[in-house]
């Protein structure tokens, strides 16, 4: 039987090793992808957040056997979609991180939220990011960046809509 | 075995292997369960299972993975009720329109489970099967039932019945069926946790009233979650049946609920609290909110307004876009490509692991490493026998063995370490090291350690340090006071909680020198300590400490460096070592838990007459910086106030608890909690507002400091009080029904630098690099605080060049001069002062070199963005770029200039006293929940005066981040210990604030102006942000409830009682 495969940052990858190895270890030790960080290894800090089928999961809680056929995107990926790009730019403009160890997790959790719920209000943004701990910033800078990213995505959608003559836009 | 896909796990070189079965249908899953019995475990998301494993549970032989079984997945809304496959992830349920429509209670319950990323994996079946899940109260209120499969076949059982019977291990849950929630039926749901989100459950409740023609036809009330057994509350339900909702006797229902709900104590919350909160939540949620206690302080004295100080400005990107600069490291961090020292990987890199004592106090009888050394793949095992130099470290006192040989004094003591080819082998080797211990009595409180006859943990005794201060005659002065307040303030064993745990790598270089890359806060001192351990000259060791993923004082002392050094030297190969969180919790230093008994008296007009303070700090097993912490605490015992009579004593006691040491605030914030609460209480006693009382006692600028020492210029305490008085928070917002609102104020006055006694020097260097960059070399560490941004700002301003032309080089003893420690709010001043001193000489050197190149007189040239310019020209282009200048110069001819200087010190040397201070006023507006007594910070305004802001983003980040660390200290954080062991080993039990716990709104304001002639420039703000948060929140809580909380983290239980009693608790 051929080894199980999964998609990692757009490439086909074979899985090897024990089925209970964590995706976090697979990323860091097998593939040299270091953006996902080990902060607790029990899903309580969010520093190892990656996207699985487009939705944030903590890589430390995903055991290898769950990966068969899965689509994984990590924050190492430079081109990770329009939301990720806008979220990154906003986080950079806001200087939203200090030590930065939690940054990758926030990038993906926030980008995923704004992709799914572009009009999320502040309470929803907080709820969506509540699994990502940051010990340095006190979160205010991350929230500001989230709102900035949301505004920019909204503006981009607006201008994209305006460019299409028949697009309908909410008043 | 069936035809399902199987894989085999082999953790380590030995031990049992774990197989995973991915069955094709539920029958195959059941068959596996029947065949393997207790050796098999069902899992869908496996999230709870992995928590159990992390907590020490052994892995099963066989994991039966249900996550991909189609018949266990999905939501079927046909026929009015919902049928939810047991393996359906919670995130799918939460997002399902069908669930939102038919069972909004369940939708809300699901959202209270863990966090979104965990809910992607965790399933509803798993939440039910564990019998402790947060969805159970809602499912009980909805009268859910379970579809089960066992050898007897399929059957449907009411959830309530299933819960009332013992678990049947030979069955599996196929689906959960939930009858539709009647539209418009009164319903409520509440999960109470230990923090605002992603929390273990304290108690959860759900209630649903079925109405029929205006009367309650049926009521279903339920409680459960976490330690609370899931339960229907039938007797209470009976009270409601048959009544119109408006006729419900809420008082009677509340009493019935209190009598009926069963709940346990667990040391975090009492059974009585859980019952009361559950009853409150059900009654309030179903319509009886009016019953909740009002709670309001009898008299609120608010400042009468005033003018904010001229020149105070909001620090934010929006307020000053032109003054907002990108951090040099921010893009790499956001793109996930910054290489932390624990991320290093290279061919041949060994993996190190440390064997910890795992017991609080024992004599070591024998250590046998033979088996571990014989394990294939093990490169080296080290013990105390491998320490060639002094087997002891400690910044102040060298009392902590790098590897213990005779005795262990706390759970985190290192006993041996291994280096192996991979993680699994290293772990297996650790298990093969045999250590024989003879237990010794455990001293788990300062009282036990000071009791007569207690075992002595160190030759100098268990009282590691006692510091006293006496001024005037406090005892006599108290007799003349019109008002005296006294309380004992208790502060938590706060954990630094840096996201990057301690770690790094080391190797012996080709020239025989040793390089250690490990997060830290003072590479030169780390090098000094490592050299002493190895018996090597310091010059043979290089320590790299930047970048570090957070420190906050917790990486000031050595962490993994001794073991890294020993393993690298013994193996001759590169070794990495990165502590897991549980090991970090066990081994890392913490904030000293303190008990501060304080008595404060004033005359009838509120003028302070006397302060008496007695502080006892738990130091844990080793000294580290704790002696200095208690000294700093005592130095701040009168805050910024004039007190004629003072008697104070601070004691540091060694125990077998976790070692304590430096943590942001360094004793000052703990003491500020005490003195500022005392000031607030005296204001109440005198009958004046909190600003007025403080103003009456404020020290005059330029007057002698607490010890009578000379202090530096530019005190801004009065201005901070003006800002506080003018704060819009005093009159903000209406009072909602569900919470009591209060506003509180506290001042702080934070010393900068190490003080008058320790050596506190700094050196730095500026140079033109071969590529044309202006390098600024400082031995300070980039721990996230933004020292690199501060360096760019200071150098750019001084030299008149662009920030982007400056390359900060930090945290590397091989490249940077020793700038002293990255602690004590000293880095900002060091950066600024260094370039103030070295800048002019460096500029001259650049202009001289450029003059030679261009054949011009240096005096006709000037520095500007891009390079060397015509001195008297305003036009843009430089005559010579820095790169062009550098390219024509031999390496030794590249211009450079350095500076070495002492941090400003005061003249006082009878004790450790500070010279430079930064001031602040913190205002908090809080909501105290009438259902739970929980405190939520609505607004946190931090007024600061710390001289010119070097870098707005770094300044803002330090104050905001310190503020939320203070919120954690105040409301949720405590690394509790019992019998010398930590009760929480990871971030599921140690609860730092999440984004949901952070203040709803925060503001940082800065007053930058210095006194004319003040030569000291910007002060540090690393500690200012945490300094006054706790007393500000305490004052706000007192404003809301009438009760002054004195034990941090504040107990919701106490506050709920206070609300009920109108302030008395």
Automatic annotation (TrEMBL), chain A:
SUPFAM superfamilies: 2Fe-2S ferredoxin-like (SSF54292), CO dehydrogenase ISP C-domain like (SSF47741). Residues 2-78 form the 2Fe-2S ferredoxin-type domain. InterPro entries: 2Fe-2S-bd, 2Fe-2S-bd_dom_sf, 2Fe-2S_ferredoxin-like_sf, 2Fe-2S_ferredoxin-type, 2Fe2S_fd_BS, Beta-grasp_dom_sf, Diverse_Oxidoreductases. Keywords: 2Fe-2S, Iron, Iron-sulfur, Metal-binding, Oxidoreductase. Transmembrane segments: none annotated. Coiled coil: none annotated. The keyword Transferase does not apply. The keyword Iron-sulfur applies. PROSITE patterns: 2FE2S_FER_1, 2FE2S_FER_2. It holds the Pfam family Fer2_2. PANTHER family: OXIDOREDUCTASE WITH IRON-SULFUR SUBUNIT (PTHR44379), XANTHINE DEHYDROGENASE IRON-SULFUR-BINDING SUBUNIT XDHC-RELATED (PTHR44379:SF8). This is (2Fe-2S)-binding protein. It comes from Methylorubrum zatmanii.
């Amino acid at each position: 039987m051929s080894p199980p495969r999964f998609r990692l940052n757009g490439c086909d990858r074979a899985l090897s090793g024990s089925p209970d190895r964590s995706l976090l270890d697979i990323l860091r030790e097998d593939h040299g992808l270091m953006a996902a960080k080990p902060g607790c290894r029990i899903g309580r800090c969010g520093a190892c957040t990656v996207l699985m089928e487009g939705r944030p999961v903590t890589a430390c809680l995903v055991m290898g056997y769950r990966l068969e056929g899965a689509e994984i995107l990590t924050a190492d990926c430079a081109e990770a979609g329009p939301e990720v790009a806008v979220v990154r730019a906003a986080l950079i403009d806001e200087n939203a991180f200090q030590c930065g160890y939690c940054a990758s997790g926030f990038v993906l959790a926030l980008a995923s939220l704004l992709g799914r719920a572009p009009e999320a209000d502040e309470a929803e943004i907080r709820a969506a990011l509540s699994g990502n701990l940051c010990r340095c910033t006190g979160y205010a800078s991350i929230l500001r960046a989230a709102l900035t990213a949301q505004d920019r995505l909204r503006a981009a959608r607006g201008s994209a809509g305006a460019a299409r003559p028949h697009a309908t836009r909410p008043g | 075995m069936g035809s399902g896909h199987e894989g085999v796990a082999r953790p380590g070189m030995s031990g049992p292997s774990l197989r995973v079965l991915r069955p094709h249908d539920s029958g195959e899953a059941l068959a596996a369960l029947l065949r393997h019995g207790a050796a098999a475990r069902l899992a869908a998301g496996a999230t709870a299972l992995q928590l159990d494993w992390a907590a020490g549970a052994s892995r099963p032989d066989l994991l039966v993975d249900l996550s991909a079984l189609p018949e266990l997945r999905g939501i079927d809304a046909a026929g009015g009720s919902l049928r939810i496959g047991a393996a359906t992830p919670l995130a799918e349920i939460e997002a399902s329109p069908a669930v939102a429509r038919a069972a909004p209670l369940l939708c809300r319950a699901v959202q209270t489970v863990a966090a979104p990323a965990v809910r992607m994996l965790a399933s509803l079946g798993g939440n039910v099967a564990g019998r402790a899940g947060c969805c159970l109260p809602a499912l009980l209120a909805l009268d859910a039932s379970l579809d089960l499969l066992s050898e007897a076949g399929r059957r449907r059982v009411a959830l309530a019945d299933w819960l009332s019977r013992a678990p049947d291990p030979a069955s599996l849950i196929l689906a959960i069926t939930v009858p539709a929630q009647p539209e418009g039926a009164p319903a409520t749901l509440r999960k109470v946790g230990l923090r605002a989100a992603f929390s273990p459950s304290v108690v959860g409740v759900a209630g649903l009233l079925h109405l029929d023609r205006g009367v309650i036809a049926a009521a279903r009330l339920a409680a459960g979650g976490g330690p609370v057994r899931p339960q229907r509350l039938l007797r209470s339900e009976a009270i409601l049946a048959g009544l119109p909702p408006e006729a419900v006797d809420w008082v009677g229902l509340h009493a019935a609920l209190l009598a009926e709900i069963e709940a346990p104590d667990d040391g975090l919350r009492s059974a009585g609290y859980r019952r009361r909160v559950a009853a409150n939540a059900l009654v309030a949620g179903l319509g009886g909110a009016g019953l909740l206690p009002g709670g309001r302080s009898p008299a609120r004295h608010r400042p009468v307004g005033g003018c904010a100080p001229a020149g105070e400005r909001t620090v934010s990107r929006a307020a000053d876009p032109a003054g907002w600069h990108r951090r040099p490291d921010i893009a790499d961090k956001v793109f996930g490509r910054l290489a932390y020292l624990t991320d290093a990987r290279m061919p041949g890199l060994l993996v190190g692991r440390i064997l910890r004592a795992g017991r609080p106090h024992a004599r070591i009888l024998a250590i046998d490493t033979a088996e571990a050394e014989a394990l294939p793949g093990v490169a080296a095992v080290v013990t105390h026998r491998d320490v060639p130099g002094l087997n002891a470290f400690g910044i102040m006192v060298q009392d902590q063995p790098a590897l213990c040989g005779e005795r262990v004094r706390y759970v985190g003591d290192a006993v041996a370490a291994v280096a192996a080819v991979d993680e699994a082998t290293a772990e297996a080797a650790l298990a093969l090291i045999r250590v024989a211990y003879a237990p010794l009595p455990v001293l788990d409180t300062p009282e036990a350690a000071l009791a007569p006859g207690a075992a002595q943990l160190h030759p100098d005794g268990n009282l590691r340090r006692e510091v006293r201060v006496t001024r005037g005659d406090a005892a006599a002065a108290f007799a003349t006071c019109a008002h005296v307040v006294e309380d004992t303030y208790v502060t938590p064993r706060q954990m630094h909680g840096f996201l990057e745990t301690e770690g790094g790598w080391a190797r012996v270089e080709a020239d025989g020198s040793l390089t250690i890359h490990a997060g830290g806060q003072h590479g030169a001192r780390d090098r000094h300590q490592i050299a002493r351990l190895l018996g090597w000259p310091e010059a043979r060791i290089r320590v790299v400490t930047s970048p570090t993923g957070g420190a906050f004082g917790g990486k000031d002392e050595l962490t993994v460096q001794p073991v890294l050094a020993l393993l690298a030297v013994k193996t001759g190969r590169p070794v990495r070592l990165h502590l897991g969180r549980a090991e970090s919790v066990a081994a890392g230093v913490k904030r000293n838990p303190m008990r501060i008994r304080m008595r404060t008296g004033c005359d009838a007009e509120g003028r302070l007459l006397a302060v008496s303070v007695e502080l006892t700090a738990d130091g844990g097993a080793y000294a580290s910086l704790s002696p200095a912490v208690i000294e700093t605490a005592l130095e701040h015992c009168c805050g910024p106030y004039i007190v004629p009579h003072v008697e104070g004593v601070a004691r540091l006691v060694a125990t077998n608890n976790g070692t304590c040491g430096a943590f942001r605030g360094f004793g000052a914030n703990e003491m500020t909690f005490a003195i500022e609460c005392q000031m607030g209480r005296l204001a109440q006693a005198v009958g004046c507002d909190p600003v007025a009382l403080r103003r009456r006692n404020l020290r005059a600028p330029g007057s002698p400091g607490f010890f009578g020492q000379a202090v530096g210029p530019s005190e801004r305490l009065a201005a901070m009080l003006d800002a506080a008085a003018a704060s819009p928070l005093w009159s903000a917002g209406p009072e909602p029904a569900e919470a009591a609102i209060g506003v509180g104020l506290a001042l702080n006055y934070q010393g900068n630098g190490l003080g008058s006694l320790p050596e506190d020097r700094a050196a730095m260097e500026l140079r033109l690099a071969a590529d044309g960059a202006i390098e600024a070399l400082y031995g300070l560490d980039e721990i996230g605080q933004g020292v690199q941004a501060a360096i760019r700002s200071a150098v750019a301003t001084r030299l008149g060049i662009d920030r982007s032309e400056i390359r900060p080089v930090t945290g590397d003893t091989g490249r940077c001069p020793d700038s002293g420690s990255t602690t004590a709010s000293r880095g900002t001043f060091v950066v600024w002062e260094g370039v103030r001193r070295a800048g002019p000489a460096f500029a001259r050197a650049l202009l001289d070199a450029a003059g030679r190149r261009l054949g011009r007189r240096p005096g006709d040239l000037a520095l500007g963005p891009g390079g060397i310019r015509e001195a008297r020209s305003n036009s843009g282009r430089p005559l010579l770029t820095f790169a062009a200048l550098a390219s024509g110069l031999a390496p030794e001819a590249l211009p450079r200039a350095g500076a070495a200087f002492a941090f400003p010190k005061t003249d006082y040397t009878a004790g450790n006293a500070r010279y430079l201070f930064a001031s602040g006023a913190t205002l908090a507006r809080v909501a105290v929940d009438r259902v739970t007594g929980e405190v939520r910070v609505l607004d946190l305004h931090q007024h600061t005066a710390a001289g010119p802001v070097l870098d707005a983003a770094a300044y803002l980040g330090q104050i905001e981040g310190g503020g939320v660390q203070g919120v954690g200290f105040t409301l949720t954080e405590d690394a509790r210990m019992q019998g010398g062991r930590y009760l929480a080993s990871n971030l599921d039990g140690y609860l730092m604030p999440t984004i949901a716990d952070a203040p709803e709104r925060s503001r940082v304001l800065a007053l930058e102006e210095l006194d004319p002639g003040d030569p000291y420039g910007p002060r540090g703000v690393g500690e200012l942000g945490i300094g006054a948060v706790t007393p500000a929140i305490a004052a706000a809580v007192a404003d809301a409830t009438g009760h002054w909380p004195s034990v941090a983290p504040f107990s919701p239980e106490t506050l709920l009682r206070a609300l009920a009693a109108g302030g008395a608790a």
